[in-house]
Write a structure and sequence with these properties.
Length: 86
């Protein structure tokens, strides 16, 4: 876990869905459906929040005993691979 503070690209179209978010990448002409957990992580990618804080937020939101640090890292890695965050 690093203290890098990821930022979502500002040229994405983001729409709320009943079960998460729909994110459309105009540059790549790709649509992404983010489940509720990934949607929370993505929404926290403002450049101001580090992964540890994100994991703490998820722990509070879902009533977890421990912050899901590894899961947040995996989610961020996927969002980076898909080009949605930097």
């Amino acid at each position: 876990m690093t203290d890098h503070r990821p930022t979502a690209r500002d040229d994405l179209e983001v729409y709320e869905a009943d079960d998460g978010l729909l994110v459309y990448d105009l540059q790549r002409d790709r649509a992404h459906h983010l489940n509720p957990t990934a949607a929370i992580v993505f929404s926290l990618c403002t450049g101001d929040v580090d992964p540890q804080t994100m994991a703490g937020h998820l722990a509070t939101t879902f009533g977890l005993d421990e912050p899901p640090l590894a899961e947040v890292d995996e989610c961020l890695a996927t969002l980076r691979e898909e080009g949605l965050v930097v």
